[in-house]
Amino acid sequence: MDIHHLRHLIAVAEHQSFRKAADALCITQPALSRSLQALEQELGVRLIDRQGRRNAPTAAMKELTRSVELLKRADLGSIAVGFGPTPAAILMQPFLARMTCDHPRLQVRIARGAVDLLVQALRNEAIDIAIVDQRALTPADDLTIEPAGRLRGGFLCRADHPLTRSPLLTLDALREFPVASTPLSDELARLLVDQLGPDADPTTGLPVRHRFSSEGEAVGRGLVAYKHAFNDSVAFVDTLLVEAGSDNTFVQNDAGLQVDMSKKLALKVGYQVRHNTDVAPGIKKTDQLMTTNLVYNFAQ
Length: 300
Known about the structure:
Blueprint: H1 3-15, H2 18-25, H3 29-43, E1 48-51, E2 54-57, H4 59-72, E3 78-83, H5 85-102, E4 107-112, H6 115-123, E5 129-131, H7 171-174, E6 179-181, H8 186-196, E7 208-211, E8 220-229, E9 234-244, E10 249-260, E11 265-276, E12 286-296
């Protein structure tokens, strides 16, 4: 599907006039008409009822326009986000909470890993965006890099800890106690060594005995798909996804009724349930979502 066709479709819907839409797009009316006819032919449905000089949008056009607008507002569709080790430990939970509140209909998929692996995933289009330590990135023509802000870090301890009675905190004093740390990127580890000396190396100098999560943790993943066709154009579909790790089990079930409008276009009404066994305080373990989607079949 050509993105220009969708832009032309939205312009006609917004301006309710071929002439005004063509002027706004800086193209001729015949070119705009050919673009919409090509989109109609590709989808196999009529988008415009042409009655003399009057052009009225059909129900299919109204639904397609609505779906495109929902995509523009991030209220429909899906996005895959990659997190480097440090951003994952600090930003992933508030990011997911914010997305759940602001864009509950958007499906979010998370990938965690080393910076070089996430960059390769970007190039392979396995993820849409990556949040990583910029210092670990090598600029390239095929990457758009924008600073998202600074993350501050430090050493924390309880108010009555013996370290609070020391007038000056040194690495020698810190090594007397076990240290718990979020996963640290290689770049951040090098930065600690550069600024504080080799004794600050988290892999050898400091007694980091506990880490809250491991990037190499094995995660079991299972997917079961079921489909029952009532006739040539109506079908019930159900997909069950289970991802199990040592600290959490994620279950997602998508059930829906799909009605084919043409060979390439279908309307799907779905019911989704997501469940996590381990969540932060104040966050529900189970989310439920009703959706109405316009499905485009690229295979046919």
